[in-house]
Structure formats: structure tokens, C-alpha cells
């Protein structure tokens, strides 16, 4: 039997969201027995969505909202017959500043996943309850070496989703 597949999909203009996606994929990979696909949203094919047991989707914050590209991506998902129902869904986000959108963006993504009937989950730790996020431009976080805290939560999210994907019927 095929291994369950976890799709980590992201939009990233400047690379921050991609780095967080890579940490999520690392965490999922650490579980073993799960196939991981890490793709920018413009390279995701409909077959990937059908095949995935879990979809972890990430966006930068753009003026308090998900990037429009990410909303368009979700709007393009197959809906007729709700083929994504009962797949696991999780979210991640990066924002330049503290408390100016990243939590809202994760909730926006999760809300759309619920419309598709997905089973939504957050990260491993309570500090990643809505998903994994990172602050990329403000204060001490304005440097890649100070991002480890965020990467740890991202790995935890990937790991949790992969473990749950293995438990799906
Ligand atoms: C058009 C635009 C709007 C933005 N608006 C916000 C915002 O409202 N809140 C925030 O925290 N960061 C905002 N940012 C910063 C990005 O969310 C942040 O730099 C993010 O990490 C970029 O992700 P990327 O490197 O994957 O492209 C904005 C960036 C752009 C380009």
C-alpha cells in the first residue's frame, strides 16, 4: 500500500514563507513512512490535492490578509462532491510585524479548509495552536539566526500532521 502523502504548499515572494515551509516538511519527514511533497502553490497540480492525505498551506501576511494568490489557489481547489473532505488541513503564515496579521491569516486559511470539509489541526505546542507562524521583520526577529523558535514550532506542526496522516483510514 502507498504511503500517505503530506502536501506542504506555500506562496512566498521573498523566501520567508518558503523557509518556514521547509521546516514544516523537515518535521513531517522526521516521522518516517510518509511521503512529503513541498511545492510553491503555482506548481501544485490537482492530482496532488486528490492524492494528499494532508495539506499544510502557508501564506505571507499582505495588509492583514492572506496573499491574494493563496486565496485564488484555494478557490481553484476541486469542490464538486467535496473531494477534499476528511483530509487533514493545517496552516502557516509569516508576517513582517508582531500581531499585525499572521494569526488572522492562519485562521482565514483554516476557515476555507473547513468549507472543503477538511479536518483542521494546529501545531504540536500550545504556542502553535493555530499553526506555525514567524515574524520576519520586527525587533529581534529581523534576522534569520533568531528564527529558530519559529522553526521549532514549524517542525512540530509538520510532525503532528504526518503522525495524524498515518492514522487516517
Ligand atoms: C504588499 C505587502 C503587504 C504586507 N503587509 C503586511 C501586514 O499587514 N502585516 C505583516 O505582518 N506583514 C506584512 N508584510 C510583510 C510580509 O508579510 C513579510 O515580509 C513576509 O514574511 C513575506 O513573506 P515572503 O518572504 O515569503 O514573501 C507585507 C508585505 C507586502 C509585500
From TrEMBL:
<dbReference type="InterPro" id="IPR029039">
    <property type="entry name" value="Flavoprotein-like_sf"/>
</dbReference>
<protein>
    <submittedName>
        <fullName>NAD(P)H:quinone oxidoreductase type IV</fullName>
    </submittedName>
</protein>
<dbReference type="Pfam" id="PF03358">
    <property type="entry name" value="FMN_red"/>
</dbReference>
<feature type="domain" description="Flavodoxin-like">
    <location>
        <begin position="6"/>
        <end position="162"/>
    </location>
</feature>
<keyword id="KW-0732">Signal</keyword>
<dbReference type="InterPro" id="IPR005025">
    <property type="entry name" value="FMN_Rdtase-like_dom"/>
</dbReference>
<dbReference type="InterPro" id="IPR008254">
    <property type="entry name" value="Flavodoxin/NO_synth"/>
</dbReference>
Amino acid at each position: 500500500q502507498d504511503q500517505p502523502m503530506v502536501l506542504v504548499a506555500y506562496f512566498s515572494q521573498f523566501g520567508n514563507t518558503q523557509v518556514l515551509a521547509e521546516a514544516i516538511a523537515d518535521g513531517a519527514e522526521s516521522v518516517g513512512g510518509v511521503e512529503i511533497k513541498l511545492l510553491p502553490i503555482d506548481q501544485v497540480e490537482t492530482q496532488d490535492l486528490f492524492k494528499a492525505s494532508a495539506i499544510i498551506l502557508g501564506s505571507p501576511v499582505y495588509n492583514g490578509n492572506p496573499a491574494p494568490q493563496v486565496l485564488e489557489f484555494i478557490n481553484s481547489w476541486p469542490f464538486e462532491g467535496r473531494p477534499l473532505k476528511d483530509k487533514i488541513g493545517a496552516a502557516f503564515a509569516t508576517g513582517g510585524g508582531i500581531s499585525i496579521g499572521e494569526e488572522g491569516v492562519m485562521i482565514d486559511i483554516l476557515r476555507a479548509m473547513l468549507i472543503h470539509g477538511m479536518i483542521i489541526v494546529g501545531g504540536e505546542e500550545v504556542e502553535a495552536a493555530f499553526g506555525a507562524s514567524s515574524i520576519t521583520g520586527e525587533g529581534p526577529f529581523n534576522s534569520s539566526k533568531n528564527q529558530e523558535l519559529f522553526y521549532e514550532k514549524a517542525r512540530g506542526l509538520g510532525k503532528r500532521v504526518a503522525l495524524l496522516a498515518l492514522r487516517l483510514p
